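Researcher: Here's a chain I'd like modeled. Treat it as a single chain, no partners, no ligands.
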Amino acid sequence: MPYLVAGVLLVAASAAGVLITVTQVGQRSPVLVLARPLAVGQVLAAGDLRVASISVDPGVDVVRADQSQMVVGQSVGYSLPAGVVLSRAVLGAPQTPPVGQGVVAVAATPGQFPPQLTLGTTVSIIHHAGPGTGLSAVPALGGLWTAVVCGIAPTASDQVTVISLQLPGEAARQVAAIPSGQLSIVAEAAGGR
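Model: Modeled as a single isolated chain. Structure tokens:
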């Protein structure tokens, strides 16, 4: 009989321990998440934010849902995709391009870039000699570069889209030297080739 009582008490204690652990680990907090992509320098509006419930470790820099009035009206220092958990570290003066990086704008027409291109996409920039001549690396310029899309601005006519690309400084200068119409932009899987 004493072993039966001890066994029941051990099972009850174990169940209580599991319950406490699960509630501690699964405790979620409402935080602010970006509802849509934002470009560097853009001012946060209430419509740019949504609330998500996530587990947050102590010391992690997140903006709680009840602090939305403190961040609305502030600008973001980086281009950010939708779904990013908002932190105070991304707010403030524009922080792009980072040291050693450059941002170059390229005018691309339909067919030179994937139409589903979005902010934050890693791309390859391929220089080709001209329309109808096929791809050819240009040794003086390097011919192929990897960049991250940091801005997309269609023009009023929809015939040209200006795409801002961030890449190392020297590479940005090389891409800027490519004549209009002589490049293609290829979307890459996250993490590169």
